[in-house]
């Protein structure tokens, strides 16, 4: 009820008490028209939440319609001693760093990175105004609104910082807000640290990150799929499964997949070791010294409400909440590679899987690989969490020579499981996809409730379609190119039933999951064709005619229906001119660093 409706309601009540039949009839008609107008305005206001691609506004609209009220979480105590204890707990890895921190400056003849005012202005203009302010208290909306006036100032500050290889202490400060992992936390580990850093430093990091990505050497591990262009979790999972399925096409073979878990991997990185590895990758000393200064002498405190702990200075780890941290971690682990050709290590940031391709029951090289990984982690100050590390054994042989002995890491046996969720996809020991499909269907059914709610409030078909594509279809087709080809008929029907239900609600035609999967496969295949550095690029080879691709050799339907053989088949069945194929296979030369 808005202000106009209240006034009309008051006028109707006044006319009713005046015993004037004509005035009462007019006021009642005005009230009816006012209510209709108010409902229409409210509908437009709600639809405005769904008119763009802003998930935050969309869920705000859902909450307004459904009258959703979030549960009040347990408030964090404001006791300073408890906050100090939390701060020391979050900084516990810094105590294990025995290396002394030395401050060095790059030689005078080394050319530092120089940023232009255009780049700085673009970074300031793209600031998300809704992001929480960091320890400096400067809100993002101020930086964005004053981008024109602040560009020159921050361009000079950024370039001076890069030239001197020194980051201002106020830029490196981190404020940690502890958030309970569940409703009744009992220990320090039950509080998840949410790190807030200055927004202006994040802009600075994005500019440096863009330069670092352009300077990546061709020798970088191709099986690190995180934070690289034309790479995704689908690529990582597809590559891992293709390696396993190709090996299982041979006789007397099986595969073991070790899903490695690290304890606080980002917080364990030693900056001096990272600096050495960046030098091995060919980054210039000026940029390496700047990164070294960025990672050392970092002030950190824990805040709860208006109460703050004492400040601790850290010299270990790549701080979570920073833009550069995930990318620097991926560079830190670039030398974690297999020592045996029969093994593969697939990485997506700190998500790592070791794949052992075993023939004739000889898993010696696989066990040596695991021990080598454990030794590498010890040398690089990374702690393997054996209790959370899991192993899947994929063995389809009818006659197995012997039982599979467990893998031991640091004297502790690794648990063997029948299913593991890797990068959002459930992988099972029989490589079936019922577990993964059931999980996706369950999530999609939960989202259908919101679609029905929008329908009950008479939102337009365009809004319903947009909500379905963004919220429901995105769940059903998560990594669809990886698993859909080997889905059972029952799983495909379960997926399609969700689509049909949504179609009845929206009363609009919706694309079938199979059509979406076909489109995604072709899109990914074309992306791989254009990227010669992609580890799967070698799987797409043209025949001498130049018009078709060589089909991958397969013996089993499991391999034949997997992504890469399926992608080659789709490319061959898609009409395409020779010029377009040549264009897809052209090599894109990266600019020298």
From TrEMBL:
Amino acid composition bias (Polar residues), ranges on this chain: 100-114
Limits of the Reverse transcriptase domain: 160-427
| Segments of this protein annotated with the region Disordered | 94-114
The molecular function terms in GO held by this entry are: 2-oxoglutarate-dependent dioxygenase activity; methyltransferase activity
Which SUPFAM superfamilies is this protein grouped with? DNA/RNA polymerases
According to the lineage, what is the superkingdom?
Eukaryota
State the PROSITE patterns in the record: RT_POL
- Pfam families, per database record: ALKBH8_N, RVT_1
The record's section on PANTHER family has: ENDO_EXONUCLEASE_PHOSPHATASE DOMAIN-CONTAINING PROTEIN (PTHR47510:SF3), REVERSE TRANSCRIPTASE DOMAIN-CONTAINING PROTEIN (PTHR47510)
Q: Which named protein is this?
A: Reverse transcriptase domain-containing protein
User: What is the native source organism of this protein?
Assistant: Labrus bergylta (ballan wrasse)
């Amino acid at each position: 009820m808005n202000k106009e409706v209240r006034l009309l309601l008051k006028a109707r009540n006044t006319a009713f008490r005046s015993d004037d039949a004509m005035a009462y009839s007019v006021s009642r008609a005005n009230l009816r028209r006012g209510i209709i107008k108010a409902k229409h305005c409210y509908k437009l206001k709600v639809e405005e939440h769904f008119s763009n691609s802003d998930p935050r506004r969309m869920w705000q609209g859902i909450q307004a319609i459904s009258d959703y009220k979030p549960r009040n979480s347990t408030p964090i105590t404001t006791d300073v001693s408890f906050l100090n204890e939390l701060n020391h707990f979050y900084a516990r890895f810094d105590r294990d760093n025995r290396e002394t921190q030395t401050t060095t400056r790059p030689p005078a003849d080394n050319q530092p990175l120089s940023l232009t005012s255009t780049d700085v202005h673009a970074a300031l203009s793209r600031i998300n105004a809704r992001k929480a302010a960091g320890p400096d208290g400067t809100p993002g909306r101020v930086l964005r609104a004053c981008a024109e006036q602040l560009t020159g100032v921050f361009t000079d500050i950024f370039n001076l910082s890069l030239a001197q290889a020194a980051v201002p202490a106020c830029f490196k400060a981190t404020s940690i807000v502890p958030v309970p992992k569940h409703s009744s936390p009992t220990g320090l580990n039950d509080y998840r640290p949410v790190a807030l850093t200055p927004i202006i430093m994040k802009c600075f990091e994005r500019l440096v990150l863009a330069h670092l990505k352009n300077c990546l050497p061709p020798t970088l591990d191709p099986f690190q799929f995180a934070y690289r262009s034309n790479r995704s979790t689908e690529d990582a999972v597809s590559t891992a499964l293709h390696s396993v399925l190709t090996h299982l096409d041979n006789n007397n073979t099986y595969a073991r997949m070790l899903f490695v878990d690290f304890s606080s991997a980002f917080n364990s990185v030693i900056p001096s070791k990272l600096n050495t590895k960046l030098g091995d990758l060919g980054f210039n000393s000026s940029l390496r010294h700047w990164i070294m200064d960025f990672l050392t002498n970092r002030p950190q405190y824990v805040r709860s409400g208006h109460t703050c702990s004492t400040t601790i200075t850290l010299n270990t780890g790549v701080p979570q909440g920073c833009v550069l941290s995930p990318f620097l971690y991926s560079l830190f682990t670039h030398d974690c590679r297999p020592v045996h050709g029969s093994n593969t290590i697939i990485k997506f940031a700190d998500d790592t899987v070791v794949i052992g391709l075993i023939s004739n029951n000889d898993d010696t090289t696989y066990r040596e690989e695991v021990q080598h990984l454990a030794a590498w982690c010890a040398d690089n100050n990374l702690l393997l969490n054996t209790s959370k590390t899991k192993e899947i054994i994929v063995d389809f042989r009818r006659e197995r020579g012997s039982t599979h002995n467990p893998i031991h890491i640091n004297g502790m046996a690794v648990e063997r499981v029948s299913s593991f969720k890797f990068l959002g996809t459930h992988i099972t020991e029989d490589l079936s996809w019922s577990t993964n499909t059931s999980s996706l269907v369950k999530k999609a059914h939960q989202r259908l409730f919101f679609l029905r709610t929008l329908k009950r409030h008479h939102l337009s078909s365009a809004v319903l379609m947009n909500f379905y594509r963004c919220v429901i279809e995105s769940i059903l087709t998560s990594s669809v190119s990886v698993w859909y080809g080997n889905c059972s008929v029952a799983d495909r029907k379960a997926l399609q039933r969700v689509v049909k239900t949504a179609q009845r609600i929206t009363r609009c035609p919706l694309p079938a999951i199979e059509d979406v999967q076909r489109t995604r496969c072709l899109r990914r295949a074309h992306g791989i064709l254009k990227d010669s550095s992609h580890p799967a690029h070698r799987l797409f080879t043209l025949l001498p005619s130049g018009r078709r691709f060589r089909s991958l050799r397969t013996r089993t339907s499991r391999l034949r229906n997997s992504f890469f053989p399926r992608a080659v088949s789709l490319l061959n069945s898609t009409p395409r001119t020779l010029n377009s194929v040549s264009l897809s296979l052209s090599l894109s030369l990266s600019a020298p660093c």
